[in-house]
């Protein structure tokens, strides 16, 4: 019978082992599983909060990037508008300067032509006066003496010399 005792189940031992098992499960649940579960829940909450914050920051960064790209596009358009306006202004100023220079050149040319015409009239008047004076001198010399062929040639030569000196 000794073998049966070893293999047999003693009811008080079985009840004590079962009570011991329930007490251990209760103690583990209360003092180990609950605190570990609370720590795990806290960590899960913190991880969820960090993921939410990261998603919010990512969306904010995307919005900032979009605004930056929009501002850069606007700045590029504004720069090209300023450049285009400056080019148009430069072309306009160039045309104005050319018109002014042409007008001034025309005025100077007109003045120079008028001055040349005055100088020409003055020179012509001086030549006429000198020729008239020479003609009078020749006429006086002709009237003073009789003209021979040699005198005539000499008078012509003198007239040509005086005309050459006058011009």
UniProtKB/TrEMBL annotation:
Subcellular location: Cell membrane; Endomembrane system
GO MF annotation list: proton-transporting ATP synthase activity, rotational mechanism; proton-transporting ATPase activity, rotational mechanism
GO cellular component, one term: plasma membrane
UniProt membrane topology term: Single-pass membrane protein
InterPro entries, per database record: ATP_synth_b/b'su_bac/chlpt, ATP_synth_F0_bsu_bac, ATP_synthase_B_chain
Entry keyword set: ATP synthesis, Cell membrane, CF(0), Coiled coil, Hydrogen ion transport, Ion transport, Membrane, Transmembrane, Transmembrane helix, Transport
Coiled coil: 51-130
Bilayer-crossing regions: 6-28
Similarity comment text for this entry: Belongs to the ATPase B chain family.
Entry function: Component of the F(0) channel, it forms part of the peripheral stalk, linking F(1) to F(0).
Subunit structure, interactors included: F-type ATPases have 2 components, F(1) - the catalytic core - and F(0) - the membrane proton channel. F(1) has five subunits: alpha(3), beta(3), gamma(1), delta(1), epsilon(1). F(0) has three main subunits: a(1), b(2) and c(10-14). The alpha and beta chains form an alternating ring which encloses part of the gamma chain. F(1) is attached to F(0) by a central stalk formed by the gamma and epsilon chains, while a peripheral stalk is formed by the delta and b chains.
Stated name of the protein: ATP synthase subunit b
Lineage: Bacteria, Bacillati, Bacillota, Clostridia, Lachnospirales
Encoding gene per record: atpF
């Amino acid at each position: 019978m000794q073998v049966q005792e070893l293999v047999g189940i003693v009811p008080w031992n079985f009840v004590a082992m079962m009570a011991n098992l329930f007490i251990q499960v209760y103690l583990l649940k209360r003092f180990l599983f609950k605190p570990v579960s609370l720590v795990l829940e806290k960590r899960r909450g913190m991880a969820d909060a960090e993921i939410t914050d990261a998603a919010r920051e990512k969306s904010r960064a995307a919005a900032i990037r979009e605004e930056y790209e929009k501002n850069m596009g606007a700045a590029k358009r504004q720069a090209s508008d300023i450049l285009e306006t400056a080019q148009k202004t430069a072309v306009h100023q160039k045309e104005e300067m050319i018109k002014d220079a042409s007008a001034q050149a025309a005025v100077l040319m007109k003045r120079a032509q008028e001055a040349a015409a005055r100088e020409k009239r003055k020179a012509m008047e001086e030549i006429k006066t000198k020729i008239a004076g020479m003609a009078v001198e020749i006429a006086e010399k002709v009237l003073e003496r009789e003209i021979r062929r040699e005198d005539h040639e000499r008078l012509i030569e003198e007239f040509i010399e005086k005309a050459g000196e006058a011009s």
